[in-house]
Design brief:
By secondary structure, the chain is an alpha/beta fold. The chain is 23% helix and 30% strand. The longest helix is centred in the N-terminal third of the chain and has 23 residues.
């Protein structure tokens, strides 16, 4: 039998094993830790921090700072981060931009700005480089209600909203601010004990780490925090009306005086009298019909706790409306005229009722609303805009950008009536409940995306009596709710239509067939149920004086039920 030789493992074998293990450990450390040491700050350009987020990679154009340390951002970047509605006005060669409470016009290459129609000198001017506009953003800090700071040594611009909460703290001991919430990460800055830092809100799981922004504009993490304190609270906008809006349009023509009201109207909290219309071919002028009777009306409303949001109508002047909408100076003139009556008569808001507009003016009507809104909001006034149902005719429906109006205005009033109106040659309901519900879903759904809490459901206090004509078409006349029963002969029975949620009558008289879809307490109740089902902002009623006795008591029981 052969003997087997034993191989003796020497010290070199163990040393090699240890080296292999150490190599694996080092590689693992490099793979897992090295990414934490990558410098994420963008080199060779100014970094932009907006509300404690480094957005430099999202910039479409580079920021630049001039010799006066005026900070310039491109129009595209302002549109992306601060004002989605900023635009270049070709006619007057200016940039128009704004915020919740300010509207600003900046002429190209002029060191001036017009803020809410008042001119102010500024240090920089809008410039054009090829097809790009660069705007002196640091001169617009008050427009956007932000604080702007350029930290030259770190090549960082910091912009923070003055409407958001700001929380700060002290550094409890000398430390390194880390790029990530782990000690195995790159240090972005050494900070001494007692220095101030801004606390950055985050949803990250930080295990004791706190995200901060240093005085030099660096973002990072530390555990060495003491004496946290709030410098600025979040600004909260107080609504004029708590609960559901209940608005009644109190219409009277330009040839009449404001109605004399002495008694309260149960169930309502807003009145909208017809105080002003556009002057035909008036280039932004208003024909007002307020006077002393109007003042008395406002006093009556306020004494009963009602807000006054009078209706400003275009009186269906389609060309006059178009001329104003397509000219910044005329829009400005109209807005200034509106603001004058708001101030003079101590109004609480405005209801814009522009109907019969060119479809091509859709964008410019939105511009008018965009430019009116901050002027009103500066003084805490409410802007409500009346619109028709989507998907109708060009001049009565397709002329509204309901989505954009819903973003800008405080409320959008859906005039949920005239499903079959004065221009229809076919008899039908003023507004069937099925049609109303379909359109509510268009408003608050993906088609228009108007927030439900901004949508007011307009309800008709009238209907139409239809009859057939010799040529086979059908004509109608409007009948107020209070007079419906006067047009129903004795013996004619009402029939309930459960889809429309309305009573219906049909009868023959003097060789004609008459039809009427009735507006009454039952049809109104169905609309209130829709308002509640979709949690809408409230209801509005067209018009005061058409209602039957006891209608407002009925409203009072339903509006906040």
């Amino acid at each position: 039998m052969e003997s087997k030789m034993k191989v003796k493992k020497g010290p070199n074998f163990f040393i090699k094993g240890i080296i292999v293990v150490l190599f694996v450990i080092v590689v693992g450390i490099i793979i897992n830790v090295a990414p934490n040491y990558i410098d994420t700050q963008i080199k060779d350009k100014i970094n932009l921090i907006v509300n404690n987020n480094n957005v430099t990679l999202s910039l479409k154009k580079d920021i630049y700072v001039d010799e006066n340390e005026v900070i310039y951002l491109s129009k595209e970047d302002i549109e992306n981060f601060f004002d989605g509605n900023i635009y270049y006005d070709e006619k007057y060669n200016q940039i128009v931009t704004g915020s919740n409470t300010k509207l600003a016009a900046l002429p190209i290459d002029k060191k001036e700005i017009e803020v809410n129609s008042s001119k102010v000198r500024i240090l920089g001017a809008v410039t054009k480089n090829e097809e790009n506009y660069y705007i002196p953003f640091s001169e617009l800090a008050k427009i956007y209600n932000v604080e702007v700071k350029y930290i030259r040594k770190n090549n960082v611009v910091v912009i923070e909203s003055l409407e958001r909460e700001k929380k700060m703290a002290n550094i409890s001991k000398n430390c390194q601010i880390k790029s990530l919430p782990t000690i195995f990460s790159r240090s972005v800055e050494n900070v001494e004990q007692g220095n101030n830092v801004v606390i950055v809100p985050t949803n990250e799981e930080l295990d004791g780490w706190v995200k901060v922004r240093t005085e030099s504009g660096k973002l990072g993490y530390t555990k060495e925090i003491a004496n946290t304190y709030i410098v600025r609270e979040t600004m909260k906008e107080e609504k004029q009306i708590q609960g559901k809006i209940s608005l009644v349009w109190d219409y009277y023509s330009e040839y009449a005086s404001a109605p004399t009201r002495t008694e309260p109207i149960a169930g309502i909290n807003v009145v909208s009298p017809s105080f002003a219309i556009l002057k035909d071919e008036g280039k932004g002028e208003l024909v007002t019909n307020i006077g002393e009777k109007g003042r008395a009306y406002v006093e009556w409303a306020h004494s009963n706790g009602y807000k006054v949001w009078p209706m400003i109508s275009n009186n269906s002047y389609i060309q006059t409306t178009s001329d104003i909408l397509n000219d910044y100076k005329l829009r400005e003139k109209l807005i200034n005229n509106i603001m004058e009556i708001v101030s003079e008569y101590k109004l609480d808001g405005i209801n814009i009722d522009f109907e019969n507009m060119y479809e091509k003016d859709k964008k410019m009507f939105s511009r008018f609303i965009i430019e009116l809104a901050p002027r009103l909001k500066e003084y805490g006034k409410v802007l409500t805009v009346d619109v028709t149902a989507p998907d109708g005719s060009a001049t009565w429906s397709l002329c509204y950008d309901r989505n954009l109006i819903g973003k800008v205005a405080d409320y959008v009033a859906f005039m949920a009536y005239d499903q079959y109106g004065t221009s229809s040659k076919k008899a039908g309901t003023t507004g069937g409940c099925d049609w109303v519900e379909v359109n509510i879903n268009k408003f608050i759904g993906t088609q228009e995306e108007v927030p439900a809490e901004k949508l007011i459901l307009g309800m008709p206090l009238y209907t139409r009596l239809w009859w057939n004509t010799a040529d086979g078409s059908e004509e109608s006349t409007a009948i107020s709710m209070k007079n419906v029963n006067k047009y129903i002969p004795n013996g004619v029975q009402k029939q309930w239509d459960d889809n429309l949620k309305q009573n219906y009558v049909q009868y023959d008289k003097d060789g004609r067939t008459y039809k009427m879809w009735i507006e009454d307490e039952q049809s109104a109740m169905a609309r209130f149920e829709l308002m509640k089902k979709y949690n809408l902002a409230g209801a509005a009623y067209w018009q005061k004086g058409y209602e039957y006795d006891g209608y407002w008591d009925f409203v009072n029981t339903l509006i906040n039920e």
